[in-house]
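Escalated from tier 1: zinc ion holo job.
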Amino acid sequence: MSLDHKVIRIELPTPFPIGPVNVFLLKADKVTLIDAGMKTKEAWNVFEEALRKEGYKVTDIEQVILTHQHPDHTGFLEWLPSDIPVYGHKLVEPWIYQDEEFVQQHSELYRNFLMEFGVSDDVMEEWLRKATAAIQVYSPKGQKLTGYLKEGDTLPYASDWEVIEAPGHSLSQLMFYNRKEKVAFGGDHILPKVPSNPYLEPTIQNPKPTPLLDYLASLEKTLNYDIDLIYSGHGEPLSDIHSLIMERIQKQHKWALRVLQAMGQGKKTTLEVSAAFFPDMYQKAPDFIFSEVYGQLTYLEKEGYVELTKNEEGVLLWEAARVLAHQS
Ligand SMILES: [Zn+2]
Ligand SMILES: [Zn+2]
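Tier 2 regenerated the structure:
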C-alpha cells in the first residue's frame, strides 16, 4: 500500500451498536480530514490525542471532506475551528444545519411513512420520537458546507481523488477514488463485517426514497471500478472488494427471501412484517428495522415476489405473489 504514509486512520468511540468510527487524516496539498467523528467528549478527546501522537493539532487541519451526513461522521464539525472549509454532497447540508423547518419536514415525512407502515395514531408520537432520536441528539447543528461535491469532481487540494456518488446507505453517500493507487475512501458504503444498512431518510428533496434499491444499484456501480483497497467508515480497510460485493448482493437476496417466508399468506402491513421478522427488535429500534424491512419489501416487489396495494387509509399492504406462494 503505497498510500500508507499519506493516510492516517483514527478510530473513535461511538455509543452506536456499530462500534467505533474511523476518521482519516489525508496528507494531500492540504491537510485534509475525511469525516468528522462523533459529538461526544470521549470521541473528541481520543481524536485530539491521536492527532498529537501523529504530530498534529486540530488547528493544523486545513479542510474537512464528508463521506455522508450520519452523526458518527459529522458529529464534531461544530467543535472544529469555524474557518476550516467543509465539503460534502449537497444533501448533507440540511442534516448538519438542522433548522427548525428541516426538522419539522423530516418529522412530517417520517410520520407519513409510519402511517403507511401501519403504525396507529395512539402510538405514533412515541414511534416517531424513537425513529428520529439519534439525529436530534448526535447530529451537529448550524453547520454549512463551503462547497458541494458531486459525481466526477475531484477533491479540492487533493486532485488525485475522484468523487463517486454511491447513494443507498444514505442518499448523500460519496466515495473518493484514487485511480492511480486503486484505493478509495468508502464511508459506510461497504463495511467489513456487516452489510451497510440502507437508511430510510425522507427529505423534501426525496420524500419517497427507496434506499435498498439505490444501495444495490450503487454496489453494482462500484463493480465498475478497479479498487484494491477501501478505507471504510468502520473497522479495518477492506481488500478484495469485488468478491465482497458479489457476496453481499447474494446474501441480500437470500435475506429478502427470508422476509418473504416470514410474511406468510395474506396481505400484511410493513409493521406486521417487521413484527414477524424481528419480534424482539422492532419496537426497540424502529428506524433500523423499518429501513430494513421496507427495503426488503420494495426489493421483493421490484423482483415480482410481492404485490403491493394500499387500503383506503393509505396503509401499504404487501402480499406474496400467488405464483410464488404456490411454488414454495
Ligand atoms: Zn452511516
Ligand atoms: Zn457510520
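The pocket of zinc ion (ligand 2) is lined by residues 18, 21, 70, 72-73, 188, 233-234 (CB under 6 Å).
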